[in-house]
Amino acid sequence: MIHEQFYSLPILVEERAWYPIFMHLLFLVLTSFLVYGGVLYHLTRIGYFKRFSKTGNNSDREQELVFNNDAPRLTVLVPSYKEEQRVIMQTLLSAAFQIYPRRRVVLLIDNPPVSSTAGHDYWQLSKARSLPITLTEYFSSHKQTFVQAENEFLSRNDSVSNDITTEVERLKKFWAELESHFSGLIDSYDEHNHVDRLFLTLIYERLQSIFSEKRISRTVLTLEAIRREYRFLVILFDVEFDSFERKKYLNCSHAANKAMNLNSYIALVGGYYREERVPGGMVLSRCEEKEATLSIPETEYYITLDADSLVVPEYSMRLISMMENPENSRVGIAQTPYSAIPGADSLLERIAGATTDIQYLIHQGFTFFNATYWVGANAVIRAAALQDIKIVTHERGYEVSKFIQDHTVIEDTESSIDIAGKNWNLYNHPERLAYSATPPDFGSLVIQRRRWANGGLLILPKLVRYLFRNFSLSGISEGFFRFHYLVSIAAVNIGLLMLMLLPFGEEFNTIWLPLTSLTYYILYARDLKQNGYRITDVFRVYALNLLLIPVNLGGVFKSVEQAFTGKHIPFARTPKIEGRTAAGSSYIIFSYVLLVQFLLGGMYSIIKDHLFLGCFSLMNAAILLYAIIIFIGLKESVEDVMQGVSKKELPIEEFAFSTAQKSL
User: Fold this and answer.
1) pLDDT digits (tens, 9 = 90+) for 170-206
2) Which of 130, 135, 449, 628 has its Cα between 20 and 30 A from that of 171?
3) CA-based nearest residue to 37, from 549, 563, 524, 440
4) Candidates 3.10.20.310, 3.30.1360.70, 3.40.50.1820, 3.90.550.10; correct CATH number of 55-338+375-436?
């Protein structure tokens, strides 16, 4: 097909047929990029399977790290904005039950401070503030029990020759008690949905299984092994909780995005501070330790964990042990790209989750080609790498440190280029160890996917500069993958729309265009099946992608707007609350406009004897109508348009939050 176009171009040039020349070149550009995406998908699959077959875990190195008194310090940061208590609690427990010594878990509460003591906002903020206090009491009481048991064992071991059989019986008693404890937590847990089910499986059931296996194991233990078992019991509950609210202080950034929530806390790490009242509010001032009302200890590693994400207990142990290996001393960020939480009842949530799980495969392939991008829901970050990319700016007259850039709303993607530009590596571990919630309805999916589509084009100049500074043969390969990741949402959605709507003419009426994507969809369907989905879900993924064309284009146009105006686009957080989130009326209307265009364009093409193009347009119209019915709902789309008209002055994220709250 492309060969035929190149063959006809010289003839058109000789004839000076400028309009047909333009249409041929446009067609070539659009189809070439679609082929580019298909080739990239095939290559990332190869990279994924090669990495998956060769990479294994080093349990000895992990155990050595855990039981090493000099293990690097770890701080888990959980940024939170107006999250429900249940969502935050699950994430905090996921972070707290990491099998790693001397860990801190800090809830970064970004809710606006409220003066009233009534209303949902105050209740929500109060619950968030109370969670670290509640968890501190729970973990501290268990830790003290096992610290005492460990000290008693050491005392017995120092004074007389221990009876190993008796010591094992003492341990078995503790193991049985913990097995029963976690069984009780599982039985009493009020399970509402598939997120609760995964939480129980990943955390409580996994820990119950650990102690059950220890209790029934017939392995002969030595005194050293017994000592390690006591240490393990202490480590499991050896966690410190804290919370921080940057918006209480004038000299912390108040920018409305997750990046500055993280940056505000990271900038304070390793210092002592006291609160001082100044005109207009409160500030944090550095001071000596004895004067401090707030102290934040140093740390070598961070885990940034979104408040709707879960990680398995081995997550930090596994990734930090890898990063502590001398050969990985330049790994600045390690992660397992998050997977969708399985078992969703909503069809839209299941299909959107399927696209997330395919992205997991693609990101693993990126690492094979040294083109890893940080996926921000969960990651282990070396503190030294963040210090290398630190910049200092000013906000409202105060000095503000930025480690994670907030130039775009996809701060993790932009920071990936910054990290790589300082000769740090990024790494994806080929194992599913992290999970994150998928929006359950179209309204919340709109907010998430529009944010994902907003920023790639703005980051592109930074990528180009990075590639030119590090030009090499391997850099060409890296650029091949990194470039597509940044521009694919814009290029693919604009390209598909133009191919389906523009009158390219009879010479483009060919079956070869859809056939070029046939192998892509066959392999996509196979990968869906391997990830626990149905092969037929590939058609539903296609339907969802058609429905998301207006959403993706909305994000892309916001990027273009920012490029011309220089005004930052507000960070729109994905609502994670009960009840349906209404979608922006403009996206609903655009979907129906696109449906009508497909119908009219298809009928027009058939009348003009362009049978193949006409049938293709009508097929897309039928698929889009199917997507509107099953992913939005006809009744719901009318409701969202009517509510959007009455609330048209609100930005989409504020409109979504207000209508979702009303549905509670």
Assistant:
1) 999 999 999 999 999 999 999 999 999 999 999 999 9
2) 135
3) 524
4) 3.90.550.10
Closest among 250, 239, 265 to 109, alpha carbons compared: 265
Q: What is the pLDDT of residues 339-372, one digit of tens each?
A: 999 999 999 999 999 999 999 999 999 999 999 9
Q: What angle do CA 259, 264, 265 make, to 5 degrees?
A: 105
Which residue matches tokens 């719901």? 636
Rounded CA separation 373/378 (Å): 12
Exposed e or buried b per residue across 581-608, where buried means at least 16 C-beta atoms within 10 angstroms of its C-beta: bbbbbbbbbbbeebbebbbebbeebbee
Q: Pick the closest to residue 257 from 363, 395, 129 (CA basis).
A: 395
pLDDT of res. 656 = 44
Joined together, the tokens standing for residue 202 give 């990943």
The DSSP bridge pattern shows strands 103-109 and 239-244 to be parallel
CB atoms within 10 A of CB 233: 22
What's the rounded Cα separation, in Å, for the pair 361 and 623? 26
Give CA–CA dist 430/4, Å, rounded. Answer: 42
pLDDT digits (tens, 9 = 90+) for 241-297: 999 999 999 999 999 899 999 999 999 999 999 999 999 899 999 999 999 999 999
By three-state DSSP, how is residue 112 classified? coil
Tokens of 314: 């081995």
Domain positions in the chain are 55-338+375-436, 442-662
Cα separation of 80 and 90, whole Å? 13
**Torsion angles phi and psi, residue 581, rounded to 5:** -90, 125
131 SS3 class: helix
Give residue for tokens 């330790």.
289
CA distance 200 to 189: 8
Residue with tokens 């009481």: 141
Task: Give the angle subtended at the CA of 23 by the CAs of 21 and 25, to the nearest 5°.
Answer: 70
Classified as helix, coil or strand, 493 is helix
> Which amino acid would we find at residue 435?
Y
Comparing CA positions, the residue from 437, 22, 376, 385 lying closest to residue 193 is 437
Q: What is the DSSP letter of 528?
A: H
Nearest to 283 by CA among 291, 292, 273: 273
How far is the C-alpha of 344 from the C-alpha of 338, rounded, in Å? 16
Cβ atoms 374, 331 nearer than 8 A: no
Stated length of the chain: 664
Q: Phi, psi at residue 297, to the nearest 5°?
A: -70, 160
